[in-house]
């Protein structure tokens, strides 16, 4: 309690009640707390959907589908994949307001470069800001003009439209850059060690039916209505999701992009993008694979050290300033042993 007046009041009230009453209060709280925990556990185990009590969680809100017939992009990057086919294309989901992160990525892991003779390029996926002002349109147009790395279509940029955004990226790659070998879909709050990723992809040497990342083999839908990842039984009835890779970063071969794009036309829409891609893969019977015997994709923040970050592919929740610091530290120590 941060309000001193309020906490003072509570303390006085607490002192005023008799010792007996205090005991009762403590006893009752001791009883209520475990009961709440048991109730929560019960809901979880029985897979009960609390959404029936949630008046504002209308499912119809999420039924917008990707428009496959519309081939119009608002912004396209300047690339010629036919002349210089990239080995790895990084598709990074981002929103209008995350310019600082985009700038940090452009200077570090998203900077176009050649690694072990293989070209790596990065593009940012954007929708449209709701009620975008004329000024904001101009600012984004300028950014796109300078860096030529923005892919944008006219859907409203919200968290629950992430599936649309990812399908846009997959549509772009299948129509505009099918000469690429591998695609990575990742986010703008990520650190990606592109050097290690290229090394592992070359070592794996699997150019088709490859899908890898941070594997989620046994996840359940969250049935608590106030969670960001809440899914009602109407949206998804089964108790478990098919295997999928965390949306923080997954990598696939170009044929898989084309197959996902094709099969997605026949799939019901699902708002959680990484689970949705898992559903497509299940339909396609493409198994998920580990890229390495050690864990290299981290869906949370991996504590930074030079030696640790040399041998990881992704780390999550990394601030723009940290992206720069980590990258520079890795670059400067390249010759040092671990
Ligand atoms: C966008 O504009 C509409 C109509 O002017 C308004 O109802 C809505 O609240 C606005 N949304 C945001 C996020 O500002
Ligand atoms: C997704 O974008 C579409 C198209 O702009 C819009 O109609 C829909 O409301 C958006 N969905 C969400 C959940 O924001
Ligand atoms: C990669 O695999 C192909 C065919 O599966 C094989 O011909 C080639 O030698 C392999 N390359 C490396 C570097 O292992
Ligand atoms: C996807 O569908 C198109 C058009 O139907 C077809 O030409 C193409 O071969 C399909 N690609 C894959 C990988 O299934």
UniProtKB/TrEMBL annotation:
<keyword id="KW-0735">Signal-anchor</keyword>
<dbReference type="GO" id="GO:0006493">
    <property type="term" value="P:protein O-linked glycosylation"/>
</dbReference>
<keyword id="KW-0325">Glycoprotein</keyword>
<dbReference type="GO" id="GO:0006629">
    <property type="term" value="P:lipid metabolic process"/>
</dbReference>
<feature type="transmembrane region" description="Helical">
    <location>
        <begin position="25"/>
        <end position="45"/>
    </location>
</feature>
<keyword id="KW-1133">Transmembrane helix</keyword>
<keyword id="KW-0808">Transferase</keyword>
<comment type="pathway">
    <text>Protein modification; protein glycosylation.</text>
</comment>
<dbReference type="Pfam" id="PF01762">
    <property type="entry name" value="Galactosyl_T"/>
</dbReference>
<dbReference type="InterPro" id="IPR002659">
    <property type="entry name" value="Glyco_trans_31"/>
</dbReference>
<keyword id="KW-0443">Lipid metabolism</keyword>
<keyword id="KW-0328">Glycosyltransferase</keyword>
<keyword id="KW-0472">Membrane</keyword>
<protein>
    <recommendedName>
        <fullName>Hexosyltransferase</fullName>
        <ecNumber>2.4.1.-</ecNumber>
    </recommendedName>
</protein>
<dbReference type="GO" id="GO:0005783">
    <property type="term" value="C:endoplasmic reticulum"/>
</dbReference>
<dbReference type="GO" id="GO:0008499">
    <property type="term" value="F:N-acetyl-beta-D-glucosaminide beta-(1,3)-galactosyltransferase activity"/>
</dbReference>
<keyword id="KW-0812">Transmembrane</keyword>
<dbReference type="GO" id="GO:0000139">
    <property type="term" value="C:Golgi membrane"/>
</dbReference>
<comment type="similarity">
    <text>Belongs to the glycosyltransferase 31 family.</text>
</comment>
<keyword id="KW-0333">Golgi apparatus</keyword>
